[in-house]
Amino acid sequence: MHRYAQKMRQLFRSLLLLSLITATSAQAAEKIDLIIDTDPGADDVVALLFALASPEELNIRALTTVAGNVRLDKTSRNARLAREWAGREDVPVYAGAPKPMMRTPIYAENIHGKEGLSGVEVYEPKKGLAKGNAVNYLIDTLKAAKPHSITLAMLGPQTNLALALIQEPEIVQGIKEVVIMGGAHFNGGNITPVAEFNLYADPQAAEVVLKSGVKLTYLPLDVTHKILTSEARLKQIAAVNNKASKIVGDILNEYVKGDMEHYGMTGGPVHDATVVAYLLKPELFTGRSVNVVVDSREGPTFGQTIVDWYDGLKAPKNAYWVQDGDAQGFFDLLTERLARLK
Ligand code: RIB
Ligand code: CA
Description:
By secondary structure, the chain is an alpha/beta fold. The protein has a single domain, classed as Alpha-Beta Complex (Inosine-uridine Nucleoside N-ribohydrolase, Chain A), CATH 3.90.245.10. The protein has helices at 2-28, 42-52, 72-85, 109-112, 134-144, 159-167, 197-201, 203-210, 221-224, 231-238, 243-263, 273-280, 327-338, and strands at residues 32-38, 58-65, 93-95, 150-154, 175-181, 216-219, 285-290, 292-294, 305-307, 319-325. An eight-stranded mixed β-sheet has the order 3-2-1-4-5-6-10-7, sandwiched between helices. Helix 2 packs parallel to helix 3 and helix 5 (134-144) packs across helix 6 (159-167). The site of alpha-D-ribofuranose has 16 residues, from helix 2 and helix 7. This is Nucleoside hydrolase. Residues 34-332 form the Inosine/uridine-preferring nucleoside hydrolase domain.
């Protein structure tokens, strides 16, 4: 009996040690130094609240805005609104490119409303924009950053980052990873039969980023169209019963209508918020490293992402393409973070 008790005591001690090591390593997990580039946009605002509610994991250096869903003045105001709603006016907002690099500008007011944010009242937020253009902010910050230390979350057309890369290619030294909501392969497009909006809105910019050699992760429609709202999930968010969850519920109730109708789905995607979930809990998602090219030629495939999923061309893998995700795990995490806000 004595030997058995001794063995049990040893086992208990090693389990205790193991749990302590796991706990400390989780705490000590590196914070992600993050810049979020965004064109709010309904799903952008949900993503921003999600990210701004997660300071333990995300050290958000700045929000940089770009024209996309709506014009730059409105995407910049909406980013400032999201910041105010999250109680995070410590995070600066820099306005960036007012239009795509080459193509004629397009917008998505039909989906996001004239103000770029339907379902909620929009107004002039208290705190203004930071001084200076987002492109210069990206250049200065990434040039001065420790090697490969800063992650970029791209939630709209990639114009700002592309312009920064063209002006100062050596900024790649400061970039750890670029996580992009954009593209479509298995799913087909949402703005044309083959193109997703962010890529279609500035394919030349996406090409510059793809060719920069930085570590890229794409969250395309292939995965965002598998992470859909439902009555139960909207109820789950509403049950949080604070201001932030009310705002998210009101935004989503309006925002998902377009996709539900267009695709005949029982729920709608929250595209940009999947980027934040990926940063916080990558284990919710699966994908593979692939070669991706984007078509910037005028014509029916303008803005299409061509993904060599089966590596037929044996071309260099230039992106991690996320193809699947745990939908309920996403909504559980989003709900848990919204509950941390007021
Ligand atoms: O196609 C979806 C993407 O386009 C999202 O980022 C949405 O906000 C729009 O910008
Ligand atoms: Ca967006």
